[in-house]
Amino acid sequence: MDINGASAIVTGGASGIGAGVVRRLAARGAKVVVADVNADAGEAVAKETGGVFVSVDVTDTDQIIAAIDKALELGPLKAAVNSAGVGWAQRTVGRDGEYSSAHDLDLYKKVIAINLIGTFDVVRLAATAMSRNEPGPDNDRGAIVNLASVAAFDGQIGQAAYSSSKGGIVGMTLPVARDLSAIGVRLNTIAPGLIDTPIYGTGPESEAFKAKLGESVLFPKRLGVPDELASMVEELIVNSYMNAEVIRVDGGIRMPPK
User: What family is this (predicted)?
Assistant: First the structure.
């Protein structure tokens, strides 16, 4: 699928994997809307890539629609990538046996709201806009890529909320792809492993910590870099025969309990 001259939207596009995806799609000739809550970083990525920044909290449907409408001003929307997400860790039951120390239910709901419901909201709205496109050579109108996590399969201690949200993204892949086949839109999911993003901080201590984490990767024994994920996102968008798939990009890691 050719995205040259078309528009694309990348949630969480201001940093990390999302920023890597923005750069990849822009290099393909797409006009990319960087949708993020971080205005400073988002504006910088948009300026670098010739795109547009739109402030988007993915729990706000109106903000998602505004970003999609902005993309449509730039060209037909043919690609959407859901990279926005959060993750907190908390055990399901506290150590003192008190109800009050059990997992914070509001925290659980927040992770689900951002990671899972936010992803689906972008999917349903972006696909709606794509359904209006003129069909391409394969009667294709667009492609969507969602970012899950290996935590969907190998969730660690304390990852109940995060793994639930990412498992939901994995679980929606096939049924939503089946739904979208009627309008010529493909949907795939990537499950990243340990990726070197700003979440790990900077400096000698951070580098030592990341090196230690990398020892658990099968091969190569290091953290992945955002462009390695972005490369797979790009392939899933432009390869017209990739559909309804969940792909781990993780160096072969299988996460231990903790």
Answer: Belongs to the short-chain dehydrogenases/reductases (SDR) family.
Return d(Cα 235, Cα 79) in angstroms, integer: 12
Catalytic site includes residue 241: no
Q: How far is CA 104 from CA 110, 156, 246, 248, in A?
A: 10, 17, 30, 30
Provide the β-strand partners of residue 33.
9, 52
Domains annotated on the chain, with CATH = 7-249 (3.40.50.720)
Cα separation, 69 vs 100, whole angstroms: 44
Q: Which of 108, 162, 200, 241 is catalytic?
A: 162
Token reading at 7: 């528009």
Cβ burial, residue 11 (10 Å; 0-12/13-18/19+): buried
Task: Compute the distance between CA of residue 194 and CA of residue 184 in angstroms, rounded to an integer.
Answer: 33
- Here the tokens at position 61 are 């449907």
- pTM, two decimals, is 0.96
SS3 254: coil
What is the rounded distance in angstroms from the CA atom of residue 28 to the CA atom of residue 218?
A: 32
